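Input (structure):
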């Protein structure tokens, strides 16, 4: 749903941007000297009505979480919802079982875009990140960034060990270095006979 419900007639696809913005300005920004605010509002409505297509993904922030949906219909105007300020509408299919996804599972770029103060923001450059977080959740892998990083580090060390780039002595040095970095104070590499 989208607000600015008194701006009727925006669904008309023959409206130019200027005519579209003018309708919003006349209903909501007429008392202002310029089109700055009404232009921003019209921009959100334009993206909602004209910028979205059936099949597009929509990210809806909600506190520390967000929801993802797929657009199922063209934009429509329903006068019965003007009083609720929800007359501009689209049908969506909620993904992830309509369950909220914690923001911490999204990459920083997607988290940042969700902080926008505009009602409707384009995020076509983040489709990969949106699909990735859906796959991440669908696969039941709900680990956090630290666990993901740890897993990648272990995989890298295994690869280096099995590729022969590090020998047993190098591995002992690596182990000692890791233990020291974790706060170990009496770290020694002992002769093999004392292993």
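Output (sequence):
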């Amino acid at each position: 749903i989208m607000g600015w419900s008194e701006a009727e007639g925006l669904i008309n696809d023959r409206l130019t941007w200027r005519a579209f913005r003018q309708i919003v300005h006349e209903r909501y920004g007429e008392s202002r000297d310029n089109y700055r605010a009404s232009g921003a509002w019209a921009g959100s409505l334009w993206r909602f009505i004209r910028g979205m297509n059936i099949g597009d993904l929509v990210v809806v922030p909600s506190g520390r979480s967000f929801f993802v949906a797929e657009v199922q219909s063209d934009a429509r105007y329903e006068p019965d919802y003007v009083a609720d300020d929800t007359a501009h509408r689209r049908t969506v299919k909620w993904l992830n079982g309509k369950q909220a996804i914690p923001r911490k599972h999204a990459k920083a770029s997607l988290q940042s875009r969700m902080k926008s103060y505009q009602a409707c923001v384009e995020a076509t450059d983040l489709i990969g990140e949106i699909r990735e977080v859906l796959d991440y959740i669908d696969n039941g892998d709900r680990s956090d960034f630290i666990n993901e990083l740890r897993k990648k580090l272990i995989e890298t060390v295994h690869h280096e060990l099995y590729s022969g780039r590090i020998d047993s002595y190098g591995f002992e040095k690596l182990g000692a270095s890791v233990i020291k970095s974790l706060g170990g104070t009496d770290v020694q590499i002992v002769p093999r006979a004392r292993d």
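Notes: The CA atoms of residues 20 and 46 lie 8 Å apart. The longest strand covers residues 65-71.
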